[in-house]
Design a protein that fits this description.
Helix content: 25-40%
Shape: globular
CATH topology of the largest domain: Rossmann fold
Radius of gyration: 26 Å
Number of helices: 9
CATH superfamily of the largest domain: Nucleotide-binding domain of ferredoxin-NADP reductase (FNR) module
CATH architecture of the largest domain: 3-Layer(aba) Sandwich
Structural class: alpha/beta
Strand order of the largest sheet: 4-3-6-1-2-5
Distance between the termini: 90 Å
Length: 422
Protein backbone atom coordinates (compact mmCIF):
# COMPACT_ATOMS: atom_id res chain seq x y z
CA UNK A 1 0.00 0.00 0.00
CA UNK A 2 1.47 3.30 -1.06
CA UNK A 3 1.59 6.35 1.15
CA UNK A 4 -0.95 8.08 -1.14
CA UNK A 5 -3.42 5.19 -0.76
CA UNK A 6 -2.95 5.24 2.99
CA UNK A 7 -3.60 8.98 3.06
CA UNK A 8 -6.78 8.53 1.05
CA UNK A 9 -7.96 5.84 3.45
CA UNK A 10 -7.31 8.15 6.42
CA UNK A 11 -9.13 11.06 4.78
CA UNK A 12 -12.03 8.77 3.85
CA UNK A 13 -12.24 7.53 7.42
CA UNK A 14 -12.37 11.07 8.73
CA UNK A 15 -15.21 12.00 6.34
CA UNK A 16 -17.06 8.81 7.25
CA UNK A 17 -16.86 9.64 10.96
CA UNK A 18 -17.97 13.20 10.26
CA UNK A 19 -20.93 11.92 8.24
CA UNK A 20 -21.96 9.55 11.02
CA UNK A 21 -21.72 12.37 13.59
CA UNK A 22 -23.80 14.77 11.49
CA UNK A 23 -26.39 12.08 10.73
CA UNK A 24 -26.71 11.27 14.44
CA UNK A 25 -27.09 14.98 15.28
CA UNK A 26 -29.77 15.41 12.64
CA UNK A 27 -31.58 12.31 13.91
CA UNK A 28 -31.61 13.67 17.47
CA UNK A 29 -32.90 17.07 16.31
CA UNK A 30 -35.58 15.34 14.24
CA UNK A 31 -36.75 13.38 17.28
CA UNK A 32 -36.89 16.62 19.29
CA UNK A 33 -38.91 18.26 16.52
CA UNK A 34 -41.39 15.38 16.40
CA UNK A 35 -41.79 15.54 20.18
CA UNK A 36 -42.41 19.29 20.01
CA UNK A 37 -44.91 18.80 17.21
CA UNK A 38 -46.79 16.16 19.21
CA UNK A 39 -46.76 18.50 22.22
CA UNK A 40 -48.18 21.32 20.12
CA UNK A 41 -50.93 19.02 18.87
CA UNK A 42 -51.79 17.90 22.41
CA UNK A 43 -52.12 21.55 23.47
CA UNK A 44 -54.12 22.45 20.31
CA UNK A 45 -51.41 24.86 19.18
CA UNK A 46 -51.19 25.24 15.37
CA UNK A 47 -47.87 23.83 14.19
CA UNK A 48 -47.15 26.91 12.11
CA UNK A 49 -48.43 29.36 14.71
CA UNK A 50 -45.00 30.50 15.93
CA UNK A 51 -44.30 33.94 14.53
CA UNK A 52 -41.60 34.40 11.97
CA UNK A 53 -39.14 37.23 12.33
CA UNK A 54 -41.00 39.05 9.56
CA UNK A 55 -44.27 38.80 11.52
CA UNK A 56 -42.61 40.03 14.70
CA UNK A 57 -41.22 43.02 12.81
CA UNK A 58 -44.65 43.76 11.36
CA UNK A 59 -46.18 44.04 14.84
CA UNK A 60 -43.69 46.76 15.81
CA UNK A 61 -44.11 50.37 14.68
CA UNK A 62 -42.76 50.67 11.14
CA UNK A 63 -41.92 54.36 11.58
CA UNK A 64 -41.83 56.76 14.47
CA UNK A 65 -44.22 59.66 14.82
CA UNK A 66 -46.41 60.96 12.03
CA UNK A 67 -46.00 60.37 8.29
CA UNK A 68 -47.77 62.26 5.50
CA UNK A 69 -50.14 60.30 3.24
CA UNK A 70 -52.14 61.47 0.24
CA UNK A 71 -55.63 60.22 -0.58
CA UNK A 72 -55.58 58.80 -4.13
CA UNK A 73 -59.03 57.24 -4.18
CA UNK A 74 -62.31 57.65 -2.30
CA UNK A 75 -65.09 55.11 -2.77
CA UNK A 76 -68.53 54.53 -1.25
CA UNK A 77 -68.85 50.87 -0.25
CA UNK A 78 -72.53 50.28 0.64
CA UNK A 79 -75.98 50.96 -0.79
CA UNK A 80 -76.81 53.16 2.20
CA UNK A 81 -73.77 55.34 1.34
CA UNK A 82 -72.72 55.41 4.97
CA UNK A 83 -69.32 53.72 4.59
CA UNK A 84 -66.50 55.13 2.51
CA UNK A 85 -63.05 53.72 1.75
CA UNK A 86 -59.96 55.91 1.53
CA UNK A 87 -56.89 54.70 -0.34
CA UNK A 88 -53.68 56.23 1.02
CA UNK A 89 -50.17 56.46 -0.45
CA UNK A 90 -47.12 57.92 1.33
CA UNK A 91 -46.03 61.41 0.28
CA UNK A 92 -42.36 60.38 0.39
CA UNK A 93 -42.95 57.70 -2.26
CA UNK A 94 -41.14 55.02 -0.27
CA UNK A 95 -42.52 51.45 -0.10
CA UNK A 96 -44.84 50.73 2.80
CA UNK A 97 -43.79 48.18 5.42
CA UNK A 98 -46.04 45.16 5.94
CA UNK A 99 -48.61 45.02 8.71
CA UNK A 100 -50.63 42.28 10.35
CA UNK A 101 -54.18 41.86 8.92
CA UNK A 102 -56.48 43.26 11.60
CA UNK A 103 -54.28 46.13 12.74
CA UNK A 104 -55.27 49.80 12.57
CA UNK A 105 -53.91 53.22 11.59
CA UNK A 106 -53.87 56.21 13.93
CA UNK A 107 -54.76 59.57 12.38
CA UNK A 108 -54.07 63.05 13.70
CA UNK A 109 -56.79 65.31 12.30
CA UNK A 110 -56.95 69.10 12.52
CA UNK A 111 -60.62 69.81 13.11
CA UNK A 112 -62.19 73.26 13.12
CA UNK A 113 -63.54 74.72 16.34
CA UNK A 114 -66.45 77.09 16.89
CA UNK A 115 -63.98 79.95 17.26
CA UNK A 116 -62.52 79.42 13.80
CA UNK A 117 -59.25 77.82 14.91
CA UNK A 118 -58.30 74.14 14.65
CA UNK A 119 -57.66 71.50 17.27
CA UNK A 120 -55.82 68.20 16.83
CA UNK A 121 -57.98 65.09 17.27
CA UNK A 122 -56.60 61.55 17.35
CA UNK A 123 -58.66 58.68 15.92
CA UNK A 124 -57.92 55.05 15.07
CA UNK A 125 -59.39 53.20 12.07
CA UNK A 126 -58.85 49.58 11.08
CA UNK A 127 -57.05 48.76 7.88
CA UNK A 128 -59.56 47.04 5.60
CA UNK A 129 -57.40 45.30 3.02
CA UNK A 130 -54.47 42.92 2.76
CA UNK A 131 -50.95 44.35 3.16
CA UNK A 132 -49.79 46.22 0.05
CA UNK A 133 -46.35 47.83 -0.37
CA UNK A 134 -47.89 50.72 -2.32
CA UNK A 135 -50.98 51.81 -0.42
CA UNK A 136 -53.17 51.42 2.66
CA UNK A 137 -56.96 51.35 2.81
CA UNK A 138 -59.32 52.29 5.63
CA UNK A 139 -63.11 52.09 5.44
CA UNK A 140 -64.96 54.53 7.69
CA UNK A 141 -68.63 54.63 8.65
CA UNK A 142 -70.30 58.01 9.04
CA UNK A 143 -71.50 58.26 12.65
CA UNK A 144 -74.88 60.01 12.63
CA UNK A 145 -76.93 61.30 15.55
CA UNK A 146 -79.05 58.43 16.92
CA UNK A 147 -82.80 59.01 16.62
CA UNK A 148 -84.16 60.91 19.62
CA UNK A 149 -80.68 61.49 21.04
CA UNK A 150 -78.78 64.65 21.86
CA UNK A 151 -75.42 62.96 21.29
CA UNK A 152 -73.47 64.90 18.64
CA UNK A 153 -72.51 63.15 15.38
CA UNK A 154 -69.08 61.62 15.09
CA UNK A 155 -66.63 64.49 14.50
CA UNK A 156 -63.88 62.53 12.82
CA UNK A 157 -66.01 60.19 10.69
CA UNK A 158 -68.10 63.08 9.35
CA UNK A 159 -64.90 65.05 8.74
CA UNK A 160 -63.60 62.21 6.58
CA UNK A 161 -66.83 61.87 4.62
CA UNK A 162 -67.42 65.60 4.11
CA UNK A 163 -63.95 67.12 3.84
CA UNK A 164 -61.42 64.46 2.84
CA UNK A 165 -61.21 63.94 -0.91
CA UNK A 166 -58.71 62.77 -3.51
CA UNK A 167 -55.59 64.87 -3.04
CA UNK A 168 -56.09 65.50 0.69
CA UNK A 169 -53.02 64.95 2.87
CA UNK A 170 -53.33 63.18 6.23
CA UNK A 171 -50.93 62.65 9.11
CA UNK A 172 -50.75 58.99 10.12
CA UNK A 173 -48.91 56.86 12.64
CA UNK A 174 -47.64 53.41 11.70
CA UNK A 175 -49.98 50.38 11.79
CA UNK A 176 -50.35 48.93 15.27
CA UNK A 177 -52.62 46.78 17.41
CA UNK A 178 -52.54 43.33 18.97
CA UNK A 179 -55.76 42.11 17.32
CA UNK A 180 -54.63 40.43 14.12
CA UNK A 181 -54.84 37.13 12.28
CA UNK A 182 -52.20 34.51 12.98
CA UNK A 183 -50.31 33.10 10.01
CA UNK A 184 -50.82 29.42 10.77
CA UNK A 185 -52.79 26.97 8.65
CA UNK A 186 -55.39 26.36 11.37
CA UNK A 187 -59.05 26.79 10.26
CA UNK A 188 -60.42 30.19 11.15
CA UNK A 189 -63.83 31.78 11.78
CA UNK A 190 -64.19 35.53 11.24
CA UNK A 191 -67.22 37.24 12.80
CA UNK A 192 -67.96 40.88 11.98
CA UNK A 193 -70.87 42.96 13.25
CA UNK A 194 -71.65 46.20 11.40
CA UNK A 195 -68.54 48.26 10.77
CA UNK A 196 -66.64 45.53 12.62
CA UNK A 197 -66.32 43.97 9.17
CA UNK A 198 -63.34 46.24 8.36
CA UNK A 199 -60.58 44.26 10.15
CA UNK A 200 -62.30 41.06 8.98
CA UNK A 201 -61.87 42.22 5.37
CA UNK A 202 -58.17 42.75 6.01
CA UNK A 203 -57.89 39.29 7.58
CA UNK A 204 -59.89 37.62 4.81
CA UNK A 205 -58.03 39.25 1.93
CA UNK A 206 -54.67 38.68 3.58
CA UNK A 207 -55.42 35.06 4.40
CA UNK A 208 -56.67 34.12 0.93
CA UNK A 209 -53.66 35.87 -0.58
CA UNK A 210 -50.98 34.29 1.63
CA UNK A 211 -52.67 30.96 2.47
CA UNK A 212 -55.15 30.27 -0.36
CA UNK A 213 -55.88 26.78 0.94
CA UNK A 214 -56.71 27.74 4.54
CA UNK A 215 -60.29 27.08 5.63
CA UNK A 216 -62.03 30.41 6.34
CA UNK A 217 -65.59 31.14 7.44
CA UNK A 218 -67.00 34.67 7.56
CA UNK A 219 -70.18 35.42 9.50
CA UNK A 220 -71.15 39.01 8.73
CA UNK A 221 -74.04 40.55 10.65
CA UNK A 222 -75.98 43.68 9.61
CA UNK A 223 -79.57 44.84 9.85
CA UNK A 224 -80.49 44.70 6.16
CA UNK A 225 -79.10 44.36 2.66
CA UNK A 226 -78.38 48.09 2.23
CA UNK A 227 -75.89 47.87 5.09
CA UNK A 228 -73.63 45.21 3.56
CA UNK A 229 -70.14 46.48 2.71
CA UNK A 230 -68.39 45.27 -0.46
CA UNK A 231 -70.96 42.55 -1.09
CA UNK A 232 -69.87 41.89 -4.67
CA UNK A 233 -66.27 41.48 -3.54
CA UNK A 234 -67.23 39.03 -0.79
CA UNK A 235 -69.39 36.96 -3.12
CA UNK A 236 -66.66 36.91 -5.78
CA UNK A 237 -64.13 35.69 -3.21
CA UNK A 238 -66.50 32.96 -2.04
CA UNK A 239 -67.04 31.82 -5.63
CA UNK A 240 -63.31 31.82 -6.40
CA UNK A 241 -62.23 29.98 -3.22
CA UNK A 242 -64.01 26.76 -2.28
CA UNK A 243 -62.38 26.90 1.17
CA UNK A 244 -64.00 30.29 1.93
CA UNK A 245 -67.55 30.08 3.32
CA UNK A 246 -69.58 33.31 3.43
CA UNK A 247 -72.62 33.68 5.69
CA UNK A 248 -74.52 36.97 5.58
CA UNK A 249 -76.80 37.44 8.60
CA UNK A 250 -79.60 40.06 8.53
CA UNK A 251 -81.29 40.92 11.82
CA UNK A 252 -84.03 43.04 10.19
CA UNK A 253 -84.18 42.30 6.45
CA UNK A 254 -86.29 44.41 4.13
CA UNK A 255 -89.06 42.83 2.03
CA UNK A 256 -86.76 43.15 -0.97
CA UNK A 257 -84.03 41.11 0.74
CA UNK A 258 -84.34 37.52 -0.50
CA UNK A 259 -83.45 34.72 1.92
CA UNK A 260 -80.98 32.26 0.45
CA UNK A 261 -79.84 34.77 -2.13
CA UNK A 262 -79.21 38.12 -0.44
CA UNK A 263 -78.55 36.55 2.95
CA UNK A 264 -78.21 33.10 4.52
CA UNK A 265 -79.49 33.69 8.06
CA UNK A 266 -82.32 35.79 9.50
CA UNK A 267 -81.29 36.94 12.95
CA UNK A 268 -78.23 37.92 14.91
CA UNK A 269 -75.06 35.88 14.99
CA UNK A 270 -75.12 33.56 17.98
CA UNK A 271 -73.42 30.38 19.07
CA UNK A 272 -76.37 28.22 17.98
CA UNK A 273 -75.85 29.41 14.42
CA UNK A 274 -72.16 28.59 14.67
CA UNK A 275 -72.92 25.12 16.06
CA UNK A 276 -75.25 24.40 13.14
CA UNK A 277 -72.94 25.67 10.43
CA UNK A 278 -69.44 24.74 11.52
CA UNK A 279 -67.96 21.25 11.24
CA UNK A 280 -66.29 19.97 14.38
CA UNK A 281 -62.75 21.36 14.02
CA UNK A 282 -60.27 23.32 16.18
CA UNK A 283 -61.17 26.77 14.81
CA UNK A 284 -59.69 30.06 15.89
CA UNK A 285 -62.43 32.67 16.30
CA UNK A 286 -61.84 36.36 15.52
CA UNK A 287 -64.69 38.69 16.48
CA UNK A 288 -65.13 42.43 15.95
CA UNK A 289 -68.32 44.33 16.57
CA UNK A 290 -70.34 46.24 19.14
CA UNK A 291 -69.84 45.44 22.81
CA UNK A 292 -73.25 43.74 23.03
CA UNK A 293 -72.17 41.22 20.39
CA UNK A 294 -68.98 40.39 22.25
CA UNK A 295 -70.71 40.16 25.61
CA UNK A 296 -73.03 37.57 24.09
CA UNK A 297 -70.65 35.58 21.88
CA UNK A 298 -67.46 35.33 23.91
CA UNK A 299 -68.99 33.63 27.00
CA UNK A 300 -71.14 31.44 24.73
CA UNK A 301 -68.06 30.23 22.84
CA UNK A 302 -66.39 29.41 26.14
CA UNK A 303 -69.48 27.49 27.26
CA UNK A 304 -69.35 25.60 23.96
CA UNK A 305 -65.85 24.46 24.91
CA UNK A 306 -63.72 26.70 22.71
CA UNK A 307 -60.35 27.17 24.49
CA UNK A 308 -59.55 30.69 25.66
CA UNK A 309 -56.46 30.81 23.42
CA UNK A 310 -58.66 30.41 20.32
CA UNK A 311 -61.00 33.33 21.03
CA UNK A 312 -59.73 36.72 19.83
CA UNK A 313 -61.85 39.87 19.79
CA UNK A 314 -61.94 43.63 19.41
CA UNK A 315 -64.84 45.91 20.26
CA UNK A 316 -65.94 49.39 19.20
CA UNK A 317 -64.36 51.49 21.93
CA UNK A 318 -63.94 50.25 25.50
CA UNK A 319 -65.41 46.84 26.23
CA UNK A 320 -65.52 44.78 29.39
CA UNK A 321 -65.88 41.09 28.56
CA UNK A 322 -65.81 38.71 31.50
CA UNK A 323 -63.69 35.70 30.53
CA UNK A 324 -64.45 32.50 32.42
CA UNK A 325 -60.87 31.27 32.22
CA UNK A 326 -59.25 34.62 32.95
CA UNK A 327 -58.37 36.15 36.28
CA UNK A 328 -60.70 38.91 37.53
CA UNK A 329 -60.17 42.34 36.00
CA UNK A 330 -57.39 44.34 37.53
CA UNK A 331 -59.55 47.35 38.26
CA UNK A 332 -59.19 48.47 41.85
CA UNK A 333 -61.61 46.70 44.17
CA UNK A 334 -63.48 48.79 46.80
CA UNK A 335 -61.47 47.43 49.72
CA UNK A 336 -58.21 47.98 47.84
CA UNK A 337 -59.17 51.57 46.97
CA UNK A 338 -59.30 52.66 50.59
CA UNK A 339 -56.39 54.94 51.40
CA UNK A 340 -55.12 55.28 47.81
CA UNK A 341 -54.21 58.79 46.74
CA UNK A 342 -53.80 60.12 43.21
CA UNK A 343 -51.46 63.09 42.85
CA UNK A 344 -51.57 65.28 39.75
CA UNK A 345 -48.18 66.93 40.08
CA UNK A 346 -48.49 69.66 37.48
CA UNK A 347 -51.83 70.93 38.72
CA UNK A 348 -50.88 70.41 42.36
CA UNK A 349 -53.95 68.33 43.21
CA UNK A 350 -53.80 65.40 45.62
CA UNK A 351 -57.06 63.47 45.82
CA UNK A 352 -58.33 60.24 47.41
CA UNK A 353 -59.14 57.57 44.85
CA UNK A 354 -62.66 56.16 44.68
CA UNK A 355 -63.28 52.67 43.31
CA UNK A 356 -66.28 53.83 41.29
CA UNK A 357 -64.37 56.62 39.58
CA UNK A 358 -63.79 54.63 36.38
CA UNK A 359 -60.37 54.94 34.77
CA UNK A 360 -57.65 57.38 35.67
CA UNK A 361 -58.57 59.35 32.55
CA UNK A 362 -62.17 59.73 33.72
CA UNK A 363 -60.98 60.57 37.22
CA UNK A 364 -58.67 63.30 35.91
CA UNK A 365 -61.39 64.78 33.69
CA UNK A 366 -63.81 64.81 36.64
CA UNK A 367 -61.30 67.03 38.47
CA UNK A 368 -61.23 69.47 35.57
CA UNK A 369 -57.82 68.33 34.36
CA UNK A 370 -57.57 68.40 30.59
CA UNK A 371 -55.99 65.26 29.13
CA UNK A 372 -55.38 64.68 25.43
CA UNK A 373 -57.14 61.46 24.47
CA UNK A 374 -58.26 59.71 21.33
CA UNK A 375 -59.69 56.22 21.22
CA UNK A 376 -60.27 55.93 24.99
CA UNK A 377 -59.71 52.19 24.60
CA UNK A 378 -55.93 51.74 24.89
CA UNK A 379 -55.36 51.81 21.16
CA UNK A 380 -53.89 55.13 20.09
CA UNK A 381 -51.52 56.09 22.94
CA UNK A 382 -52.69 59.71 23.03
CA UNK A 383 -53.31 59.68 26.80
CA UNK A 384 -49.89 58.18 27.61
CA UNK A 385 -48.71 59.84 30.83
CA UNK A 386 -45.52 59.59 32.87
CA UNK A 387 -45.80 57.87 36.26
CA UNK A 388 -43.68 59.77 38.78
CA UNK A 389 -44.35 57.34 41.64
CA UNK A 390 -46.53 54.33 42.35
CA UNK A 391 -48.09 51.62 40.18
CA UNK A 392 -51.19 51.22 38.02
CA UNK A 393 -53.27 48.19 37.00
CA UNK A 394 -54.79 47.73 33.56
CA UNK A 395 -58.48 46.94 33.18
CA UNK A 396 -57.72 45.37 29.78
CA UNK A 397 -54.63 44.70 27.72
CA UNK A 398 -53.97 47.84 25.65
CA UNK A 399 -53.22 47.62 21.94
CA UNK A 400 -50.76 50.50 22.23
CA UNK A 401 -47.57 49.54 24.08
CA UNK A 402 -46.79 52.38 26.51
CA UNK A 403 -43.21 53.42 27.03
CA UNK A 404 -41.47 52.30 30.23
CA UNK A 405 -42.40 54.54 33.15
CA UNK A 406 -45.68 55.63 31.55
CA UNK A 407 -49.27 54.42 31.48
CA UNK A 408 -52.38 54.76 29.32
CA UNK A 409 -54.86 56.60 31.53
CA UNK A 410 -57.91 55.44 29.56
CA UNK A 411 -57.55 51.77 30.51
CA UNK A 412 -55.94 51.76 33.95
CA UNK A 413 -56.62 52.45 37.62
CA UNK A 414 -54.21 52.98 40.53
CA UNK A 415 -52.77 49.81 42.08
CA UNK A 416 -51.03 51.84 44.77
CA UNK A 417 -51.04 55.53 45.55
CA UNK A 418 -49.76 57.10 42.37
CA UNK A 419 -48.30 60.40 41.22
CA UNK A 420 -48.86 61.43 37.59
CA UNK A 421 -47.24 64.13 35.49
CA UNK A 422 -50.46 66.03 34.87
Amino acid sequence: MTSLTLLLWIVGGIFLQLGVYLSYGFWRHWLDYLALRRRATDLSIPVNALRSSEEQEATSPAWQGLRSFRVVRKQVEDAAQSICSFYLVPQDGLPLPPFQPGQFLTFQLDLSTAGGSTTPVIRCYSLSDAPDPNSYRVSIKRALVPAGSSVPPGRSSNFFHDHIDVGSVLQIRAPSGHFYLDRSDAPVVLIGGGIGITPMLSMLNGCLSEHPGREVWLFYGVRKGHDVVMKSHLEAMAQAHSNFHLRLCFSNPLPADVAGSDYQHHGRIDVELLRRELPLKPYHFYICGPTTMLQSLVPALEDWGVPDARIHYEAFGPASIQRKSAAPALATAPDEAAGLVVTFSRSGQQLPWQSGAGTLLEFAEAQGIRVDSGCRAGGCGTCQTTILAGEVAYCQTPDFDPEPGTCLLCVCTPKTSVSLEL
